[in-house]
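Possible regression after last week's pipeline update?

I re-ran a chain I had predicted before the update to compare outputs. Posting the input and the new output here so someone can diff against the archived version. Not blocking, just want to make sure nothing changed silently.
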Amino acid sequence: MHAPETIETGRLYLRKPLASDAEAIFERYAGDPVVTRYMSWPMHRCVDDTRAFLAWSDADWARWPAGSYLIFSRDSESRLLGGTGLYFVRPHHAVTGYVLARNAWGLGFATEALHAMVDLARSIGVHRLDALCHADHRASAHVLEKCGFHCDGVLPQHTPFPNLASGTLFDVLSFSMEFPLFGPAQP
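New output (post-update):
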């Protein structure tokens, strides 16, 4: 089953990224060293880096049932707030995460967007959904826990965070959520 290209929640509008979004993505969050500090991808140095991400996103959507989503506010300004998505490991196993512009922090948008990804994963037949966060990023771990993820523990020296230190692997907290193979969806 293929995911919808747009999703609406109470306060958010999520949609598949478009090529025309490159400058806004770069300016709002992908080119911000504070925002990208705990991302496992390098901060974008120029809009061409963002265009490369958008090409990767298009390929991901073509290959899998879903991919990246941009997060917009549903208020009158319809501001770009950040990004999220489902990144597939196998057809029924995906990874999720999120990134928000600085002025969108602490307002519950991460929790709302992540709940949307959990609901989407369940609806398109994902059986296992994973997420990782830097071991020191307590705010992100808290969001994952609020959304029903189980902390499986620490993976030592596991993931690069190129915006912290190039060539270094950092400890991460590993989170997961499993959905039943048969029967009604669980809350």
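Follow-up from reviewer: compared with the archived run. Confidence is low (pLDDT under 50) at residues 183-187. Marking as no regression found.
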